[in-house]
Design the sequence.
């Protein structure tokens, strides 16, 4: 895989994550993807890097603490 192909695939990961997690600001998603991507900077085998990045970011964004920070607070039920 060329560097251009890998960069394009990382951009596609960001786009998919933005669609999958609409409540998370796109800049936060991009930051998360690039942070995870940097962890693979010294990896010699590059073919699966975009897939591994996507899986790691999905795991990060699915943690309740991440979603709780971007979701509005629950409205308490009144009168029940």
Sequence:
């Amino acid at each position: 895989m060329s560097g251009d192909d890998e960069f394009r695939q990382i951009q596609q990961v960001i786009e998919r994550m933005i669609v999958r997690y609409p409540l998370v600001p796109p800049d936060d998603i991009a930051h998360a993807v690039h942070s995870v991507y940097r962890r693979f900077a010294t990896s010699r085998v590059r073919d699966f890097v975009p897939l591994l990045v996507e899986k790691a970011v999905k795991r990060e964004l699915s943690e309740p603490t991440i979603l709780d920070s971007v979701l509005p607070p629950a409205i308490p039920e009144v009168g029940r």
